[in-house]
C-alpha cells in the first residue's frame, strides 16, 4: 500500500515548526553578530554574491536605488505580483543550499532585528536584500554603534 504526502491537507507539526523557528533565529543572531564585528560593505555572504546581486538588479531594477532596498515592504513582497517576481528570482538560485529555507529578514536596514521590524522570507531573498544593503553600505552602522 503506497500513500503520497498531500502538503495541502497536512497538519502542521508543532515540533517541526519550532525547529524551523530555532534555526531561523540562530541564523539571524549569527548574521547580526557578524554585522557588529565586520562592516557589511566588506562582508561576503556566499560565493554567489556577485551573481545574486546582478540578478537582483536585473529582476528588480527599483533596487538600484539604495533607499528601496533600505526599507522592504512586506505587502509588496507578498502581493500576488511580488510573489511571482520573487518566485521567478528565487528559482534561478536553486543550486544554492537551503535557498528556499525560511529565514528572518529585517524590514529596515537601519534597525536591529525586532519583532515588529522582521518578516519571514526565504534564504535567497535574505541573501539578495542583505547583499545589496551591504554593497550600498547600509549595514555599516551596526559595527559603529558600540
TrEMBL record:
Q: Which GO terms describe its molecular function?
A: misfolded protein binding; nascent polypeptide-associated complex binding; protein folding chaperone; ribosome binding; translation elongation factor binding
GO cellular component terms, alphabetically, are: cytoplasm
Chief place where the protein resides: cytoplasm
Its family?
Belongs to the PBDC1 family.
Where in or outside the cell it occurs: the entry states: Cytoplasm
Q: What is this protein called?
A: Protein PBDC1 homolog
Q: Give all residue intervals belonging to the Polysaccharide biosynthesis domain.
A: 16-142
Biological process (GO) annotations held by this record are: 'de novo' cotranslational protein folding
Annotated transmembrane regions: none
Pfam family name, one:
PBDC1
What keywords appear on the UniProt entry? Cytoplasm
